[in-house]
Amino acid sequence: MEAADGEEQHFAPPPIGDMNELLNPGQEENIQGQMEEFLGPHSEYNEEEEEKKYYRRKRLGVIKNVLAASFGAMIVYSVYVGLLQMQLILHYDTTYREVKYSNLGLEDIDRKMLMGINVTPIVGLLYTAVLIRFLGTKWMMFLASGIYALFVSTNYWERYYTLVPSAIAIGVAIVPFWASLGNYITRMAQLYYEYVNYEKEHVQEQKKLPKGACHSYIIVFHSIFNIIFHLSFVFAEFPMCLVLNRYLHDDKHTLYNVKFCGAKVSGVIPGFNTTVLTSLPRSMLLIQVESVLMGFAFLSMIIFLVLCGAAHRPTEEIDLRSIGWGNIFQLPFKHLRDYRLRLLCPFFIYSGFEILFAITGFSLTYGVCILGLKNLWLLVVVYGLSCSVFSSLSLLILRFPRWVCLMSGAVVHFILLVVLMAFSVQRKENQTYSEYMGPLLVITALWGLGSALNKTGLSTVIGMLYAEEKERLDFVYTIYRWWEAIAIFIVYLWSNMPMRAKLAILLATLLVASYCYWLMERRLAKDLRPRLPRIPRPRHKEEKGPPSQKPHFSSPLYFRGYFWGVFGRVQPAAALFSTTKLCPSGACFSGV
C-alpha cells in the first residue's frame, strides 16, 4: 500500500466536451440566445426611418452639388473676364507696349488671342459630345476649369507661344464646359426627384420618368445656378476697380478726339486715345494680382473636384459610353431633326448676340464713350447685379406658362433696342456728361433684366423639353452652346460695322427668334410628335463561352473572328458562310 501510495498516479484527462457540459451546462443555450438577440431585429431600429434619413442625406448632397457647380462656374468666369479685361486695357496703351514689350507686338498677339477664343468654338460640335461621354460630366467641368487656370498662368510670361496657345485651349473648352454645366444642373434636378419619390415603382426600377414629373426642380435649380453665376460679372471688376482705375487717365484725355457716341458710331469708339494710363503699374503689383486670380482659379478646380458629385451612376456612365463612339459623334447632328431644337436655334443665336453686345457693344460704344473708361466697372457691376437678382423671376414659371419668361425678356430687349437706335450723343469740348449716368445705368439694369430672363428661360425650357430623356441631355445642351458660340464669333466679326447695323441685326434676330418660339409652342400644344433620333442600345462585351472553348490566339479561327469583329458585322458574315461545308454554323467568324 505504501509503495502504491508512493507511486505517481496518472489519470487521463476527461474529454473537453464532457468538461464543458459539467462546468457550464447552460452555456450553449446562453450563446444561442445571445446570437439570436444580436442577429434578430432590434427593437430600437426603424427601417423606414433609416431609409428616410438616407434619402434626406442624398437630397442634401444634390443641393450641395448644385451650389458647388454654381460657385465653381462663377469663380472661373469672374477670373477669366477680370484678367482678360485688365490685360486688354494694359496692352491697348502704347506706352505700356513700348516700355515693357517694345519688340513683342502685343497688339498683334491680342488680336490672335481673341481670334483663338472666338473662332475655335466653331468646331465644338465635332468633339463636345465625345469628350463629355468619355470623361464624364463632372470631369469635363474639372478639366475645363483647369484650362481656364492655364490661361491665367500664361500671363506671368506674356509671349506669343504662351498667350495664343492658351487662348486656343480656352476656345476648345468653351462649348464642352457650358454644355456640361447645363447637363449637370438638369441631371441634379432629375436625381432630386428620384430621391424625393424613392418609394415609387418607376424610380426603384429606374424606368423613364413620367412627363413633367421633375419640371419644378429643373426650374428651381437653373434659377439658383443663374443667380449665383451672374455674380461673376461683379467679381470680375475687382481688379479693374481696386487696382487699374488709379492708373487711368480721366475722360477729358482719353475721349479728346471722340466726336460721336451711341447709334451714330461706326466701330467701337472711333478717336479713342491710345494712351490711357497716367503711369505704368509696377510689375510686382501685376504679379500679385495675377497670383490672387490664379489662387481663385485653383479654388474653382478644387470645388469641381471635391464638392461636385457624379452626375450619373457608374452603370449609367458605362451605358452612355457603350453605344459606340461613332454614334456619339453623329447624334448631336441627328438631334437637329427635332423641330423643337430647330425652332429654338434663333433664340440660341440671339442669346450669344445679346450677352456679348452688353459687355462689348453697349458698355463701350455707349458707356465708356459717354462716361469715360473709369466708369466701365460701374456699368458691368450694375449689369451683373441686375442679371443675378432678376434671374429669380424665372421662378414664375412654377405658376405661369413657360413662355412667359422668354417672351418677357424679348419684350424688354425689343424696347431697349428701339431706344438705343435713337440714342446718340455728340461730344463737345469742356462739357461734362454726368447727366447721362442715370439713364445709362437704368438701360444697363433693364438689359440685365432681359438677359436674365433669356438665359435662365432658355436653359430651363431645354431642361423641361428633355427632362425625361437623360441620355439626350448632353447632345441637346451641346447644340445650344454651339449655336451660342457661333453667334459670339459673328459679334467678333462685326466689330467695325455701324452701330445701327448691329442693332438692326439684333432686332431682326430677336423677332425671328420670338416667332419661331411661338411656332414651337403652338406645335407642342397640338401634340405634334418630334422626330427624335434613335439611340442604340448599350453594347457590352459578354463572354460567349468558357475560356476552354475559345480558340487559342495561335489558331487561324482566332484571327478570322478578330478580323470580322473589328472590320465588319459578325452576323452578316456568319450568315454568308452558314451554308458552306467549311463553317456550317458560322462559328469561324463569331470567334467561338
Automatic annotation (TrEMBL):
Question: What are the start and end residues of every segment in region (Disordered)?
Answer: 1-27
Q: Name one Pfam family in it.
A: UNC-93
Q: Which GO terms describe its molecular function?
A: Toll-like receptor binding
Keywords, ordered alphabetically: Membrane, Transmembrane, Transmembrane helix
List the InterPro entries: Ion_channel_UNC-93 (IPR010291), MFS_trans_sf (IPR036259), UNC93B1 (IPR043268)
Provide the protein's localization. Answer: Membrane
Transmembrane stretches in the record are: 62-83, 113-132, 139-157, 163-185, 217-236, 292-311, 343-364, 376-396, 403-424, 436-454, 475-495, 501-520
Query: Which terms under GO biological process does the entry name?
Result: intracellular protein transport; toll-like receptor 3 signaling pathway; toll-like receptor 7 signaling pathway; toll-like receptor 9 signaling pathway; toll-like receptor signaling pathway
Mind telling me which SUPFAM superfamilies this protein's record contains? MFS general substrate transporter
GO annotations of cellular component type: endosome; lysosome; membrane
How does it sit in the bilayer?
Answer: Multi-pass membrane protein
Q: Which PANTHER family match?
A: PROTEIN UNC-93 HOMOLOG B1
Quote the protein name from its UniProt record.
Unc-93 homolog B1, TLR signaling regulator
Provide the organism lineage as a comma list.
Answer: Eukaryota, Metazoa, Chordata, Craniata, Vertebrata
